[in-house]
Amino acid sequence: MTLSMSQPIQRAHCNGQPDVKAPQHVTAERLLLRRPTQSDASLIFARYASDPAVTRYLSWPRHQSIEQTYEFLSFSDSEWEAWPAGPYLIESRHSGLLLGSTGFKFSGPGEAETGYVLAGDAWHQGYATEALLALMTLCEPLGIRLAWAWCHHEHVASQRVLEKCDFQREQAPMHLLEFPNLGSSARQPVFKYARAF
């Protein structure tokens, strides 16, 4: 995989402590990962956030209105301000089409949750694997020692993506999490996958 960053990892200093920031654009062979902006709201809403099939196994509720997408973008901005990185949008380098999103949600220094979502017409083309591998190249420079992800026990395609990206499934008993788009308030069994750096 060919990767490039349009800007290097930035190291600023705040109160004498190094503040490492991820590049806002990461280029893979077929994809561009970039920080979302408020102007992306309508595309995010239309391409994947409001799609029942796409959001089925996600831990966040399907967007019923564009206002929910703006709330996500405000959350994204706050993550990027507070932590070394946050959400990234996934675009086709060839066409510029928005394909989905990925990124980090930090649980503390050195640990971050990750995940991915792709529009339905971008499924089964290796984009999730390519995007996640590109994202993982940022872990060591950002000081991430452990990246992890939840995966619904029936979502086999997503489990395969994580395994291709060298995530290992935790051997402990499955956890239970809410999946708001499955039409039931019952907590669902999930696997926890992790990758150490």
Kindly describe this structure:
The protein has about 200 residues and is α+β, with helices and mostly antiparallel strands. It has one domain (about 5-150): Aminopeptidase (3-Layer(aba) Sandwich). Helix content is about 25%, strand content about 35%. Helix 1 crosses helix 3 (about 65-80). The longest helix has 17 residues, at about 65-80. The chain starts with a strand and ends with a strand.
Total separate domains: 1
CATH topology: Aminopeptidase
Ranges where pLDDT stays below 50 over 5 or more residues in a row are 12-17
Helix content: 25-40%
- Briefly, what CATH class? Alpha Beta
Question: In brief, what are we looking at here?
Answer:
With 197 residues, the chain is of the alpha+beta class. It has helices spanning 41-49, 52-55, 66-82, 127-136, 139-142, 156-164; strands spanning 4-5, 10-14, 17-21, 25-27, 31-34, 87-92, 98-108, 111-118, 146-152, 168-169, 175-177, 188-196. It has one domain (4-148): Gcn5-related N-acetyltransferase (GNAT) (Aminopeptidase).
Give the tags.
6 helices; ten-stranded mixed beta sheet; about 25% helix; about 200 residues; Aminopeptidase; alpha+beta
Helix/strand layout:
Elements lengths: L3 E2 L4 E5 L2 E5 L3 E3 L3 E4 L6 H9 L2 H4 L10 H17 L4 E6 L5 E11 L2 E8 L8 H10 L2 H4 L3 E7 L3 H9 L3 E2 L5 E3 L10 E9 L1
Helix pairs in contact: 1-3
